[in-house]
Amino acid sequence: MSEPGGTTSDVGRDVGGGVLGGGVLGGGELGDGVLGDGAARTPWRAGPLLGAFAAAGVLTAADVRVAERLGALTGEADERVRLAAALAVRAVRGGSVCVSLADAVALVDVGDPGPGRIEAGGREAAGPGPGTPDAGPAVLPWPEPDAWAAAVRASAMVADGPAGPADRPVRWVDGRVYLDRYWRDEQLVRHEVDARLAAALPADDAAVRRAVAARFPRPADTRQRLAAATAAVSRLTVLTGGPGTGKTTTVARLVAVLRDVHGTDLRVALAAPTGKAAARLQEAVDAELAELAAASGAPRPAVLHASTLHRLLGARPGGGTRFRHDRAHRLPHDVVVVDEASMVSLPLLARLLEALRPDARLVLVGDPDQLASVEVGAVLGDLVARVPPAGSLPARLAALVPDDAPPPLTAAGGTGTGPTTTGTGTGPPVVTDADRSDDARDRRALRGGVVRLTVPHRFGADLGALAEAVRRGRADEALGLLRAGGPHVQLVETADAAPTAAEVGGVRADVAAAGAAVVAAARAGDAAGALDALGRHRLLLAHRRGPAGVALWSAVAQRWVTEAAGADDGGGPWAVGAPLLVTTNDRTTGLANGDTGVVVDDGSGGVVVAFGTAGAPRLVRPHRLPAVELVHAMTVHRAQGSQFARVSVLLPPATSPLLTRELLYTAVTRARDVVRVVGTAEAVQAAVQRPVRRASGLLFPR
Ligand SMILES: Nc1ncnc2c1ncn2[C@@H]1O[C@H](COP(=O)(O)OP(=O)(O)OP(=O)(O)O)[C@@H](O)[C@H]1O
C-alpha cells in the first residue's frame, strides 16, 4: 500500500503482494517486476484467448502475466478462468475493487479507455493502453457467459462465494470477480461498518442536547447539529458536503460537543490521507476551538495535532501493508476524525477499522464527488451510496434532536426500509423514484451515519452553482454557467484543444503575478509571505505529459515567472522563490509526498525551503530534503486536499480518457475565489458527461 501519489508500480506491488504476499500461494512469486515498470513492454507468452484481449489492447502484458502465473500455480489451464483473473487485475489497476464479468463486456463495448490509460494518480501509460479504438466486443472472443461463470466458479484458482475456501487467490461472489485480498478488505469494511452502526451508543441525552445547542446556536445550523448528535451516539459518522459547506467547522465543534459531554480527557486523533490535508485540518480545527474557548471565556484548549493516516497507524519503514497499530495493538483514541476521506483507499480504511478500538468513534469527513483514491476503491462514495442495514440510529436521532433530524422514511412512499433488494437477496439494490431525490437519499443515508452538509458558506454563488452542475452531471448547464461567467468563474473557450498564446493570456498574468510575489517575498527572506503568495494561484492539468500536460506547462509557467520576476538565476530548483513539490515520504523531515514549499533566502548567503502554512512555516535546509520537483503546475490529482485563491485549469482534448466529471469537479472546487477553465466546449461537456465508475461490492448485500 502506498501513500497517495504512489506510482503505478506501487499499485502493481499491491496486486502482487496481495495475492502472494498474503501467504496464499507462497511468497515472492510475483515480485514488483511482474507489474512494475516496463512490464507493459515485456513480451509474454499468452494463450490465444488472453492474447486476443491483449492484442486488442484490453489487457496489458502485466494483466496477462499475473493471470498466467496464477494459473500455473493453481494448476488452472482453462483460459477462460485466466481471462477472468486478468480482468480482475485490470480492474484493480483502474481503481475498481472487482470486476463484474457481465459488465466487463459492456465496459469495453462503450469504449472504456481502461485502467492502462487512466492510471492511478492520473498518470498516463507510456504506450498505447487498453481500449484502443479497434478494441470492441465484435472482435473480442468473449466466452459464452454461463459456461464462463461455471468454469470460473469450479476452478481451483477461485473461491466460490463468501464461504469459499480462504486459500484461493481469486474469489467469485454473485458474478463479481475479485483478487481475494481485496474481497477480504471489502468484507472487513462491510462488517466493521455494519457493526459500528448496529446499535446506537448510550449517552446522557440532556447533556448532548445542551452541548449541541450551545455549539451550533444558529437556526440554520440544522445539518451541523445533526452531525454532532450523530457523532455523540454513533460509532461511525460520515460527514459529507461540497467545499465551504462547513465540514471543518463542524468537525471542530463536534469535538467540542464530545468534550462537553465526555470531558476534556477524551483522546481525539485528527488525520488525513496527505500531510497537506492534515496540516490544513489541524490549523482550521485549532483556530475554531480557540475561538469557541475565547467566546465562552474558557482557557485555550491544548492544540490537537493532526497527522497523516499512515503515521497515525504507525507506518513501518519501507512501507508495506502492515502497520504498528492493528487488531492486536489498537489505537488508544476515543475519537478518530479522518478528513479528505474521499482519498482513502479500501485497504487503508480496512487497516484503520481494524486498528480502532470497537468503542471508539470514527468520523469520516469528505466530499464523495471528488476524485477517489489513487489506489483501489471509492470507499467514501460507497459508504454514502450503499443501502445501510436497518439500525436504531435514525430513531435515536429523531428523539435526540427532533427539530434537526429528518422524519424517518415511511413505508407508504416505498422507502420505509430504503430501497429493496431483488428476490434472491444478492442482486443490486433496486431504487424507486421516491428514493432518488436528494432528500430521500439523505434520509436513507442517515441510517449509515451519513450527514450531508448542503449550504455553501464560502463560495461565490456562480462558483457554487458551477460545482453543483458538474456534480449533478448537467453538461449544458455547466457549460452555460461557464460561458455566462461571473466574478468567480471564467471560461476561456478555445477554438482548438491546444490554446493559443492569446487564449492563455489571463493564465499567464495570474501565473506571473503570483510567481513574482513568491519570488519577492522569498528574496526578502519572508517565508510566511512566500507561502501565502504560493497559494494565490495554481495552474492545474489532467495529464502529466503531452501538449496538455504538467511537464510542458510547468516549463512554460516557469518562463513566465522568470520573466516577470526578473530572475537572473534561470529559475532552477534552488533559485530563490522556486516552488517545490515533495515527491516521496520522508520520515526524517516529516515531509510527505505532495507537500509544497518555497526556496527562501536565509539572510546569510544561503537558502532554506519553507513548508507548511503561512501561519506556521517550517524551514528545512536543502540538503535534508527528500526528492522534490518544481511545481509551477500540477495535476488535479495532486491538488486534491489543497485549495488556492485562484485556479486555472487547462482541459485536455475532449477525447482524453482522464477527462472525467470527478476531475473537473475536483479542479473547480480547488478554487477558493476564482476558477478559470481553459478548453473547448466539447471538453467541458465530455468531462461532465463522463463519471468515473469504480466497481465495488460494498453497494451489494454481500
Ligand atoms: N453554520 C455556519 N454558518 C455560517 N458560516 C459557517 C457555518 N459553518 C461554517 N461556516 C463558515 O464557512 C466557511 C467554510 O467552512 P469550512 O471551512 O468549515 O468548510 P469546509 O466544508 O470544511 O470547506 P472545505 O471543503 O473547503 O475544506 C468558513 O468561513 C466557516 O467559518
From TrEMBL:
Keyword Transmembrane: no
Region (Disordered): 116-136, 404-440
GO molecular function, one term: ATP hydrolysis activity
One Pfam family recorded for the sequence: RecD_N
Catalytic activity: ATP + H2O = ADP + phosphate + H(+)
Transmembrane parts of this sequence: none
Domain AAA+ ATPase per the UniProt entry, residue ranges: 233-547
Keyword flag DNA repair: yes
Composition skew (Low complexity), residue ranges: 418-432
E.C. number: 5.6.2.3
Keyword tags: ATP-binding, DNA damage, DNA repair, DNA-binding, Exonuclease, Helicase, Hydrolase, Isomerase, Nuclease, Nucleotide-binding
Residue runs in coiled coils: none
Binding residues annotated for ATP, in chain numbering: G241, G242, P243, G244, T245, G246, K247, T248
NCBIfam families linked: recD
Family statement drawn from the similarity comment of this UniProt entry: Belongs to the RecD family.
Function of the molecule: A helicase/nuclease that prepares dsDNA breaks (DSB) for recombinational DNA repair. Binds to DSBs and unwinds DNA via a highly rapid and processive ATP-dependent bidirectional helicase activity. Unwinds dsDNA until it encounters a Chi (crossover hotspot instigator) sequence from the 3' direction. Cuts ssDNA a few nucleotides 3' to the Chi site. The properties and activities of the enzyme are changed at Chi. The Chi-altered holoenzyme produces a long 3'-ssDNA overhang and facilitates RecA-binding to the ssDNA for homologous DNA recombination and repair.
Subunit structure as annotated in this protein's UniProt entry: Heterotrimer of RecB, RecC and RecD. All subunits contribute to DNA-binding.
Name this protein carries in UniProt: RecBCD enzyme subunit RecD
Organism: Cellulomonas shaoxiangyii
